[in-house]
Structures
1.
Amino acid sequence: GESVGLHLPTLSVQEGDNSIINCAYSNSASDYFIWYKQESGKGPQFIIDIRSNMDKRQGQRVTVLLNKTVKHLSLQIAATQPGDSAVYFCAENFYGQGGKLIFGQGTELSVKP
Amino acid sequence: EAGVAQSPRYKIIEKRQSVAFWCNPISGHATLYWYQQILGQGPKLLIQFQNNGVVDDSQLPKDRFSAERLKGVDSTLKIQPAKLEDSAVYLCASSFGTGEHQPQHFGDGTRLSIL
């Protein structure tokens, strides 16, 4: 069935290092993906999205990579800062689902000063 | 631009009682969603509205949960009667247009605790 999963439940990095958060999806029909950041007590915050006709998209300090062959996407955060500490979720959608997002369990990113 | 507003932020009730949550989406967003987020998990869609019509309520436990968006703007989600397993954060989100291939913007949620 449909599912979005994360390889690593927790990730600890040093301030200034680059972070890579991974996500696997199982629905080959999924054609739109979003990364969200969720801080404690807050709702998910949109970071970046990518459509299936792209394999890379860059934002401010973030890059999302999509590999449709192995149904995998990743979020790269450059020069990780303490403010990046949060839980990161990937979510998938496919056209015809009316915008319904299917979320994975999340990866907790901890940035050490 | 004001974000998605939700109230209350916290609610504690006993099982079998009823509770209601309110959401005001981002101005101009036609599509509104209610999600349930259990501790340690990702959000799970309960119901999606486009304007004042229901698009998807396949995951809504209709024997106890109800939602409405009468004027196509604000929305309320109700639980009656509540069960222990309903303890969760209830998130409201909105998106532009039909929601297809559009980012959803979330409020900070209502944290519900059932005693």
2.
Amino acid sequence: AQTIHQWPVAEIKAVGSPLSLGCTIKGKSSPNLYWYWQATGGTLQQLFYSITVGQVESVVQLNLSASRPKDDQFILSTEKLLLSHSGFYLCAWSPWGQDTQYFGPGTRLLVL
Amino acid sequence: SQLAEENLWALSVHEGESVTVNCSYKTSITALQWYRQKSGEGPAQLILIRSNEREKRNGRLRATLDTSSQSSSLSITATRCEDTAVYFCATYNQGKLIFGQGTKLSIKP
């Protein structure tokens, strides 16, 4: 069975500080990977997707970057946080060629 | 504006009752998905209904799709407290999964 793990569970960070969020998928090789952002009470907005190691496509520009250093790992980062980065960050995966996306438990970020 | 939108921001019913969440979309689709997101968790897919299907069931859940009116509905029968969640419809557009704004469903005991 596939499992998806996100870390950390929650973060409180200062404006201007760096950030790194991680996501690992176990039990599935070569998945498509996605990062989403969700404001409190809002909808999900796709930020990045990756279909293979080393390749990441940006969907929305929010002063964030993403990398896929390993087949099962997806990293979201920024060197300088903004207040608007606060929210719920979700990692998801889908099998190649399939429409269903499977979401992780999320990381809640508060920027002060 | 969203490509897919649920028609109501919030609904509330008593446990055991049935409830329907509606969604409308704006583009031609190959499939529409319904997701449920419980508080503090990631969304989970409930049903995927393809454009050549009119109805699909999953236990107490029933989704319909009307491509002529570009609308879909998700019905839940015999609701339980654990059905309390936000329900999203979602469609693909240019390779991206686009979620609606969501309908917050509260099940009262």
